[in-house]
Amino acid sequence: MGTDAPAERIRRSLLFVPAVRPDRFPKALATGADAVCIDLEDGVAPDAKETARAAALDLLAGRGPSAAEVSLRINDAKTALGRTDLAELVESGARPDALMLPKVAGAEEIRAVDRALARAGGGLPLIVQIETAAGLLAAAEIAAASSNVSAVFFGAIDLSADLGCAVEWEALIYARSRVVLAAGAAGVSALDSPFMDVPALDALAEETRRVRRLGFTGKAAIHPAQVPVIQAAFAPGAAETAWARKIVAAYERQQGGVLLVDGQLIELPVVRSARRTLRIAERLGSAGDQA
Hints:
Elements: E1 13-18, H1 24-30, E2 35-39, H2 49-62, E3 69-73, H3 80-92, E4 98-101, H4 107-118, E5 126-130, H5 133-137, H6 139-143, E6 149-154, H7 156-163, H8 169-186, E7 189-192, H9 201-214, E8 218-221, H10 226-234, H11 238-254, E9 259-261, E10 264-266, H12 268-284
Parallel strand pairs: 1-2, 1-8, 2-3, 3-4, 4-5, 5-6, 6-7, 7-8
Antiparallel strand pairs: 9-10
Helix pairs in contact: 2-3, 9-10, 11-12
């Protein structure tokens, strides 16, 4: 399982790039997104899967160092297409920073992927997508299935189709909450679904603030214009960082226990959250007041 450690991966935003458009990959890295995912699944038409796979492996083999985490989303690992994606990735020797697995329905899928990667000499951090009714029911087991699981990713569009519900906040609040609970119990990150109305940046900002309050640590993007909006919403602001610093300082002066800070009761869980805020602000290199 992952931990809330200083070395945890920050993924405020994760920008998808279709593997059939390798020209977009450098542009995606230039957006400043914390993570970029080369997509072999939804972003690729059925008749272009082989071309996309070859292009993705070429991108991975030829890429240089980048500040962004570069992941690869294969097709559903339960299908022949997904198994081929995984086998050719292993055979190629290309190493993404992480591997994204769509439509995960059970913990055994994770362990099977782990075994395949181990045969190639080692595992990869796994970003597992919860986007089916079966996956939602098994979310806790999926999140805890392997020490390589790094993040749980909520997929609103596929899940709403599976459930027959609207792609609306109220209709999906239980599903989102269940994903956050599973991620929290396993000690891994929780990533939210992309916002599909690309020009509606104010609505994107509001939804991103909502999912952050719910417990998500990042949100996917489908267009470069969405990246700064998402990252600003997830970056600790100046006031938030100052409050976290005040809490930690007071707690350390008292050397533990329960205390009051500006009239508010502060206990260890609040201090842990404040310390995480400070770690993120420090790692973003901005004292938390910039995206």
